[in-house]
Amino acid sequence: MNICILSRNPNLFSTRRLVEAAENRGHKVTVIDPLRCYMDIKSGKPNVHYRGRALNQFDAIIPRIGASITFYGTAVLRQFEMMGTYGLNESVAITRSRDKLRSLQILSRKGIGLPTTSFAHSSKMTREIINLVGGPPLIIKLIEGTQGIGVILAETQKAAESTIEAFRELDAHFLVQEFIKEANGSDIRCFVVGKKVVAAMMRSAKKGEFRSNIHRGATSKEIKLTKKEKETAIQAAIVMGLNVAGVDIIRSSRGPLVIEVNSSPGLEGIEKATKKNIAGEIIKFVERNAKKGNTRTKGHG
To answer: Most buried among 80, 199, 246, 300, using CB within 10 Å?
Structure first.
């Protein structure tokens, strides 16, 4: 197959691993920066161009679109979809997953376990949204934040009200969530490919930190999931419409709770922790699904 990886940096670990895994299985791979693509939105014949040539030769697109370029990156991916090219994750699913509020609303409607979450626009509702999640300690989380940025633990009522007031002054959109004490600063990254959890690791926050992001110095180790945890992770990915997803869950007294569904999960931390060839699993999934999902020979979709 002729595979395109949409990535801003071919030297990133995840991009390199996907290239390596695809080439090891006999595929031709091209890494293309989505921000350097431009689109020909022509009636009946849409196309994507890069460096003066049309990109109409690919059998499959693997999007590695960072949060900072979601709008343009998904527009490029959507143009490939209009051309009938198979995409590993669809543009609408990526856009959906990047909006934390929308994600939680969708997961909530489908009955997926979640931390109690509140959201309001008016500053007059500050005490009400704090009370909805059971009061402090609680988590205040920027909707647009990534890698633990914009996630604050407010341990007192005063701290919670002050933080919320500060975010409102900045005209920032944020969520207020209950703090799950029994999680003890740990969460579990479940890596879903298709309808299967191919790897899972527990991430534990460093001393004095409550955020369990690897970028924040957390440690990780492979972990065996319960049946319920596997089912929750798989169902969350399905509900979000993602073929490949990093589903982050925490263990609570009422079962596994989903805190985020990532449409472009990194490979480095989990491959190193689990010693599993996750990139290879992704390429195998593309092989199984690209031909039946590719409509370039059937007309534009």
So the answer is: 80
Give the neighbor-by-neighbor strand order of the sheet with 196-204. 219-222, 196-204, 186-193, 244-252, 255-262
Place of tokens 């509900």: 239
Q: What is the pLDDT of residue 137?
A: 93
Task: List the structure tokens of 25.
Answer: 């299985």
Per DSSP, the residues of 181-246 read GGGTTEEEEEEEETTEEEEEEEEEPPTT-----GGGT-EEEE-PPPHHHHHHHHHHHHHHT-SEEE
C-alpha–C-alpha distance, residues 243 and 13, integer Å: 20
Structure-token match 């670990």, residue found: 13
Pairing of strands 186-193, 196-204: antiparallel
Nearest CA to 107 out of 239, 264, 249, 251 is that of 239
Q: What gap in Å lies between CA 62 and CA 88, rounded to an integer?
A: 5
- The pTM of the whole model exceeds 0.70: yes
Q: Which residue has the higher pLDDT, 300 or 196?
A: 196
